[in-house]
Design brief:
Blueprint (H helix, E strand, L loop, with lengths): L1 H46 L5 H32 L7 E4 H18 L3 E6 L6 E4 L1 H17 L5 E8 L21 E10 L33 H11 L3 E5 L7 E11 L6 H6 L2 H5 L27
Parallel strand pairs: 2-4
Antiparallel strand pairs: 1-3, 3-7, 4-5, 5-7, 6-7
Helix pairs in contact: 1-2, 2-5, 3-4, 4-5
Length: 310
């Protein structure tokens, strides 16, 4: 009986500690967003002014570091909610194609600085509208694609989205995962390939462990917090899917694949309203410089900087 009382008391104390931690992280997340967004916005505006090459390099470093810190703040809060089970998906109808356009708009400026070619291929049978958590899906795609850009010095990154079929939706390390489409849902398959530094075979089993880092010395300069892929795996799991990475070794690039379950849009829903509230549609009327593409190779022109990231 004394042991039971002690265990119950310890459980209550642990739950109180978790709630206190989450409240603290939520407050800090909110308080840090305002100054961080001010730094990002003003740095972006500075880049549009006349600067010397040295000044431009310093401002770009400030902007890149601010974006990384903002992402880390969000990752820590998300991870805290995921670990204590308080995280819930926000299910709604959304424009699936617009999600990929928005991801490209966010990563293209950084890829342009590194002179990388980024391409996106959407399968003809990919639904325009889907039902699910648009924000978390975009966060997962952006994290995986962002890693591809981060760890690729030269070459290209390709993003492919399609409806998963039974023969193409299996992780070789998880043969028990076998999604079956239904009348009210389908499985989205997203694959990101890069020509980057690759992953060694001994690092692959630990790649989704939080705070884990590759032992490849070539990655040290681009190493992040080690939270991104761990959070992606949690999001994918909540969406009843699977995520895995494949690489033939150091210097041979990497292929990241994930599959998530999405609902089929309610026919009674207003599709036009969904299209109008999509990120890409909202951006169409924003003032300021627009992203410019080269029709031949799809790359951003050198004058395009980080405006889209704001």
């Amino acid at each position: 009986m004394e042991q039971n009382v002690a265990l119950d008391s310890a459980r209550r104390e642990a739950e109180m500690a978790i709630r206190a931690r989450n409240d603290f992280l939520a407050v800090m997340n909110h308080e840090m967003r305002t100054p961080m967004h001010a730094i990002i916005a003003l740095s972006s505006l500075l880049l549009e002014t006349e600067l010397t090459p040295e000044q431009r390099l310093m401002i770009e470093t400030v902007l890149k570091s601010s974006n990384l810190l903002a992402a880390l703040i969000n990752d820590v809060l998300d991870l805290s909610k995921l670990e204590d089970g308080s995280f819930e998906l926000e299910i709604a109808n959304f424009n699936l194609h617009a999600v990929f356009r928005e991801v490209i708009n966010l990563i293209k400026p950084i890829a342009a600085v590194k002179k990388l070619c980024v391409s996106v291929t959407l399968a003809p049978d990919l639904p325009l509208c889907a039902m699910g958590d648009e924000k978390r899906l975009m966060q997962t795609i952006l994290n995986v694609a962002g890693n591809a850009v981060k760890f690729t010095k030269e070459g290209h990154i390709s993003i492919t989205a399609s409806v998963a079929r039974s023969d193409s939706s299996r992780d070789p390390r998880a043969p028990e995962f076998s999604p079956v489409p239904g009348d009210r849902h389908f499985y989205l398959r997203v694959q990101v390939k890069d020509t980057g530094c690759g992953i060694s075979p001994q690092d692959l089993p630990h790649i989704f462990t939080k705070f884990a880092h590759s032992r490849n010395s070539a990655n040290k300069a681009s190493s992040g917090s080690g939270l991104g892929l761990a959070i992606c795996r949690r999001f994918v799991s909540l969406m009843e899917g699977q995520i895995w990475l494949e690489s033939e070794g150091i210097g041979k690039g990497c292929t990241a694949t994930f599959i998530v379950k999405l609902g089929i849009c309610d026919p009674s829903g207003n599709l036009q309203q969904i299209l109008q509230t999509s990120p890409s549609h909202r951006d169409a009327n924003l003032p300021g410089p627009r992203a410019k593409f080269d029709d031949e190779n799809g790359k951003f022109t050198p004058m395009m900087r980080y405006q889209r990231s704001v």
